[in-house]
Amino acid sequence: MTHNFLIIWQQRDVVLAGLLNTLILLAVSGLASLVLGALLAPLLVSGNKVVSRVAAAYVDAMRCAPFLLFVYLIYFGLPTLGINLSNWSAGALALILYNTAYMGELLRGAWLELPASLIESGKAFGFRGLTLLRRIILPPVLMRATPLIGNQLIQIVKDSAFLTVIAVSELTHEMTGIQATYFIPFAAFVAAVLLYWCICLAIEAATGMLNQFAEERRA
Question: What is the pTM of this model?
């Protein structure tokens, strides 16, 4: 068994390349889905019923669709419409579109918890539209939603493992290649689990510090 883990160590360049790709996917899709979710949240709380229902339909569609099937739809379906993406781009796009719905919904929940007086005060000072959203609404919404955003980032890390089905060279894909070459599934997948765990612990620690900062600001 020790010999199997030694093989993993000897293949550390491959493992680290997969880990780095997973972290890049997390950074790109996490940031993009958070930004798009912040733009989606106002649509979800819009007083225009058509706008809010269309936005809610998008959220429901993403929440009800299995992520693996959504990846297949993006990677294999878009080329039939003349849209050809690399496997990495298709995987990143799937992560962004899928998690934007969740980010938008959790930000909507935090938005609804804001006191009405806060928004009214912003309007009284002349803030409107995107300026009101950026200066008055989003800061407290993001602070309130920090733990939920951290949870969603962890979900993105776990979702990224599904991208191995379209040959994105992330951590799971590289570990699968190692175990298929050297026939050491236990060592390969235990090492993968430990690395995913380390990523999630780092996210939890970061969101914990941000949440503590937000609590101090609210105090």
Answer: 0.92
